[in-house]
User: Which sequence fits this backbone?
């Protein structure tokens, strides 16, 4: 039997498309969430927070002052502080704002192992 490229492509897409669309929300996430890791380039232990955008979160479970890469989801802006209360008491030098796709190596901007708390908001 002779199969045309169109039939072959259709078969492949109908098989793979449900798998890809199911995986995408877990890879990219919904607006308001942020992915952070102990190692650069999102390696080693990693965490994810997507609850309560606009509220202060304190990094915990091994991430407190121990993150090397941070990646907010699309349409998400996150501000990280080097204190545990999302506070600007010392001015702009104690915080950094990161937007999608994030920063794979925070040491390049002097922020590796500094982040202690953060607020994420919807928007670019």
Assistant:
């Amino acid at each position: 039997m002779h199969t045309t490229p169109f039939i072959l492509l259709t078969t492949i897409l109908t098989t793979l498309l449900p798998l890809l669309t199911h995986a995408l929300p877990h890879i990219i996430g919904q607006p308001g969430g942020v992915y952070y890791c102990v190692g650069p380039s999102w390696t080693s232990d990693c965490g994810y927070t997507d609850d309560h955008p606009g509220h202060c979160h304190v990094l915990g479970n091994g991430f407190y002052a121990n993150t090397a890469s941070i990646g907010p989801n699309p349409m998400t802006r996150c501000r990280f502080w080097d204190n545990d209360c999302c506070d600007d008491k010392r001015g702009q030098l104690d915080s950094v704002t990161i937007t999608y796709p994030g920063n794979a190596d925070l040491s390049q901007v002097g922020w590796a192992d500094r982040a202690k708390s953060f607020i994420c908001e919807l928007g670019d």
User: Anything to note?
Assistant: DSSP finds one helix and seven strands in the chain. The two ends are 53 Å apart (CA to CA).
